[in-house]
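Technical annex B. To support the medicinal chemistry partners, we prepared a structural model of the target in complex with coenzyme A, based solely on the information shown next.
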Amino acid sequence: MYGGGYLPDDQKRHLPIAEDPDKLAAFETRIDRGDKVEPQDWMPTEYRKQLIRMIEQHAHSEIIGALPEGTWITRAPGFKRKMAIMAKVQDEIGHAQLLYAAAETLGKTREAMINDLINGKSKYSNVFNYPAETWSDIAVIGFLIDAAAIVNQTLNAKGSYGPYCRALERICYEEAFHLKQGHDAFVALATGTERSRSELQAALNRWWKPIMHFFGPSDKASVHSEKLMRWKVKMASNDDMRNQFLDMYVPRIWELDLTLPDPELRKDSDTGVWLFGDPDWNEFFEVIKGNGPCNAERLAVRRWAEEKGEWVKRALRPRNEIYVTPLA
Ligand code: COA
């Protein structure tokens, strides 16, 4: 449920969303000027709702995203890679903390967000609903999914909502290290043995569709983009972000003599736009509805963690009673 505990009266959810036109105009002028919006500032109810939705989904993606990589900590090839993947998983959980804190500034409690995640009400990134079957999957995630996240997050870090932008700035520094470790693992496999190359190629083939889905549906099918871009929450459209990613990373994959499983993928030299075949949007919509290969497993693990970790939360909760030295 939407918390909204400390929202100003005119912004409580049960009231109709008819904004004061003068306040709305002043707000949009500030956005156009490039001002940052802070939690105590007036904001349209829809802006608040959209930010909560997006930041919350992002936070969930970080904790769920730690699960496939977490299962490889004990199986990473060698001490150096084990240390790196362990640090990365820890960072992802830290990112979730930063993002939940940013979403809380908008009035939804962390408990409400976690409940919505484990009850399947909130979405999280499609890509974390696929299995990481081999170490090559981890290399593909570390290189390409972190690269995709950086494209999205460096753009949105220049957006309008102060707490989200500041969280994204910090996250991007750490993501840059993640990308380096992912690229290093990816290149090691690509330039290793025949077997490591073919395992990497198979992982790349498996992950290409989910990676193409990562930036969301095409601009025509996107529901929220227009509003979010007007209010500078999203700083580029889904197709523009996808194009930026393809432009930066497809050449880096091809230079390693690896292939991508889309015969139509090419850059139009006149427009600079990447063309590609249908990445199977039906599959995307099924996955985000909860019907992907690992959705049930991911949520089951989170539910288990909530249940088993409840005593830790209870122990950390501040107590009200006053401590007095017991009488001898
Ligand atoms: N995974 C899961 N759901 C996705 C998705 C993805 N990769 N891309 C889009 N969707 C969902 C949206 O959440 C929305 O569903 P909802 O209305 O039930 O919330 C629906 O598909 C329509 O998409 P769209 O209107 O384009 O959503 P959007 O404008 O919010 O754009 C993102 C989607 C992912 C680009 C945007 O939310 C974003 O930049 N999020 C922050 C970054 C993030 O969460 N990264 C994930 C992991 S690092």
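Notes passed to the chemistry partners:
Residues 1-15 have pLDDT under 50 and may be disordered.
The pocket of coenzyme A is lined by residues 53-54, 57-58, 61, 123, 125-126, 149, 152, 156, 213-217, 222-225, 228, 234, 238, 288 (CB under 6 Å).
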